[in-house]
Specification:
alpha+beta, 4-stranded antiparallel beta sheet, elongated, 443 residues
């Protein structure tokens, strides 16, 4: 019996998902637990493993389509069934024209008296059957007749890659791909190459033509919605502190080779900032709190959200109970979350439950940033770039001198409904002191 491939339930509050990429095509061999397709939900982007070993028999939901959880999106034939070719009838309910079209062969000759009358309704029906809502939306926005687009999907179905490849062509070349109405278009080798290299849903690719308009990815829609909601919810205020982290830079340079050799993990600057934040949050628990209605929720643990920039958007995985981890545990946890964010291996529960967020715009060269609060947190720390600068340094005897020091600018974005300016400044002063006088062993 073939094994159904279903849209998984990626968390209790998730009811649908969008298939962004199939990693296999019909007829390919698959192994159980091997990545089979990618999905995007309002929580995470994830790779979904194959539920069984065998041959991918058919794909029922093409890339770019959104379906409810537990919807069958494809089937896998067992090894004993692999010799049987995929049955087109199994995918026809999703991809074929309505039943009345099945009674008419694709090669039937249209009577002469009807050739003089246009049939826009039938052409629209055919286009509807061999394309997704996303493809039809792109076609409408660019005034494209889908009968001109060759489909590389099953039964000549037009995918998002097909129409994006079509749009990349000069207008003078587009007519070459025109297919006769009612005949399944077959893509030429050059067009297939374009389709294979065209933008995938969920990837950050600049518009091919200046002034072009493309639909937002699911992740971008969610980011936009949450940023606006946060601005409308919290009374955003920011304060910035300049911090001399020369001691930490020297310590890291001295110990990073041995640290990696002993623990098999790179020593980065992020755990230093996260550790200093954890210590400060324990001294100022209001910064780790959140508003619930007209009440204040003081959280028992520090769950640190670590903002991770992806090629296709932004995600904030959460390091749970970070206050219980030592320095090595913080470094390993941060690295693990970052790697699995980029490889789409996060689980929905790993992007929920943060009580405080740290973001690092400095990795791209920013001196500082003014980050938006990650709801329902009440504060977020922005870490700027580490630079060398001349500073006035006072020794133990009170003598001043000018020295080249490693400096970072830290910005705290906080919700003024809950956190007063004096408390925010005291919190940041504590973080600054912890970093400048760092004495903790790094392992």
């Amino acid at each position: 019996m073939p094994t159904d491939i279903v849209m998984p339930q990626m968390g209790e509050s998730i009811f649908e998902g969008t298939i962004t990429k199939w990693l296999k095509k019909p007829g390919d061999k698959v192994q159980r637990d091997e990545p089979l397709f990618e999905i995007s939900t309002d929580k995470v982007d994830a790779e979904i493993p194959a539920p069984a070993s065998g041959i991918l028999q058919d794909i029922k939901v093409v890339e770019g389509n959104t379906v409810q959880v537990n919807t069958v999106v494809g089937t896998i034939a067992g090894d004993g069934e692999a010799a049987a070719p995929p049955t087109p009838a199994k995918s026809s309910p999703v991809q074929a024209p309505p039943a009345k079209a099945e009674t008419k062969p694709a090669t039937a000759v249209v009577p002469v008296e009807r050739q003089t009358t246009p049939e826009p309704a039938r052409e629209e029906e055919d286009d509807h059957a061999r394309s997704s809502p996303l493809v039809r939306k792109i076609a409408r926005e660019h005034n494209i007749n889908l009968s001109q687009v060759s489909g590389t999907g099953m039964s000549g179905r037009i995918t998002k890659q097909d129409i994006m490849a079509f749009l990349e062509k000069p207008e003078t070349d587009r007519s070459e791909t025109t297919a006769a109405p009612g005949v399944s278009a077959r893509v030429s080798a050059p067009a297939a190459s374009l389709a294979a290299s065209s933008p995938r849903p969920g990837t950050a690719t600049p518009a091919a033509i200046p002034g072009d308009m493309v639909p937002m990815t699911q992740m971008r829609k969610i980011i936009a919605q949450r940023m606006i909601e946060s601005r409308r919810t919290s009374a955003h205020v920011h304060c910035m502190f300049e911090v001399d982290i020369t001691r930490i830079v020297q310590l890291r340079n001295k110990t990073k080779a041995g640290f990696e050799q002993r623990h098999g993990a790179r020593l980065t600057f992020m755990p230093f900032f996260v550790r200093a934040v954890i210590i400060a949050l324990q001294q100022f628990p209001i910064v780790n709190a959140s508003i619930e209605g007209e009440n204040i929720r003081y959280h028992r643990h520090v769950n640190v959200g670590i903002a991770v920039a992806l090629d296709w958007g932004l995600i904030v995985p959460v390091l749970k109970n970070a206050d219980e981890l030592n320095f090595l545990g913080l470094q390993r946890g941060i690295s693990d979350l970052g790697e699995r964010s980029r490889s789409k291996k996060l689980k929905p529960e790993e992007v929920e439950g943060s009580t405080f967020t740290v973001t690092n715009p400095g990795q791209f060269g920013a001196v500082f940033g003014l980050p938006i609060i990650n709801q329902p947190n009440s504060a977020i720390l922005g870490v700027g770039g580490i630079t060398k600068a001349p500073l006035v340094v006072t020794d133990n005897d009170g003598n001043d001198s000018i020295a080249i020091r490693s400096v970072v600018h830290l910005t705290l974005g906080y919700d003024h409904r809950l956190i007063d300016g004096a408390v925010a400044d005291q919190f940041m002063a504590f973080v600054k002191k912890t970093l400048e006088s760092w004495s903790e062993e790094v392992g």
